Amino acid sequence: MTDSTIGRIPAMKAVWMEQLRVVRLAIRREAGLAALVVALGSVAVIGISRLPVLQAIFNEDMQRLVFDPAESPWMFLPVLAALLLPLVVWKGERRFGDTPLWSMPVDHRRHVLLKVTAGWVWLMAILGAFLVWATLTTLVSGGSLGVDDVRLLLLDAAGASAGVPDAMEPVNWTTPWWQWVLPFTSASAAYLLASTLVLATARPLFWAAGLWVAGAVVLAIGEIWDIGWMQRTTEFVAWYIGGESFARGVQLPTGREVVWTLLPTVQMWMTLSAFWISLGLAGVLMASGRPRNQ
Q1: pLDDT tens digits along 24-34
Q2: Phi (first) and psi of residue 61, to 5 degrees
Q3: Structural domain count of the chain
Q4: Three-state SS letters, 10-59
């Protein structure tokens, strides 16, 4: 080290490229295992749908695969990966106390934010590859992309059960363009919120489990006491992370039918995305600025 290099701060581009490399090395094993599972699943789906021998073994024809990115389980898989990724990105690093993060020539907060951003970039790349792979698997297996059907929109539950003609409205529904972007925004929000837990607490799994239990309790309270606004809120959250929402079975005079209580809109997607991503960004910014002794 010479006098000209002492105290020199690395260029931001060099720090950024190093963070991308470090995060890639941190996640490569888990990403490789996930890719292997996805590849084996694709081979199984294509084989069962195309080979009569495998169809005979399963004793039934393979149901025609439909790839709608906003429906379960397609939607839930990216969100689940996003929730787990921060644990992999930060594995092996001491995040609290007198950690090596404080001895680096780059500001601690900047280092944390760059690392979180690098993890998000790799998450988007992995998610993009997953969607391409799922699309190819669907097409090769003879399936279809998106849905194009008529959905029954429930306007009056009591009237529908009694057979009132105007209690339901048929609506032509085709998978809109923004639902192909929905997995990216939902995964981004989940990644930022999970990163907040990893950066803000020494036991993120404990807090995640507590939040999950709290959510289950809120859901149960809303169902048991039939609290409308609570039920609707949980439906919005469930829809955004890939759960079953806004569709339920209703007993009609002609038999039991699946109807929709609400059809998702682009405004709903934009509002939920802005809220959850902003909440995640605020959490990461606050967690990255914690004092050194915490």
Answers
A1: 999 999 999 99
A2: -70, 145
A3: 1
A4: CCHHHHHHHHHHHHHHHHHHHHHHHHHHHHHHHHHHHHHHHCHHHHHHCC
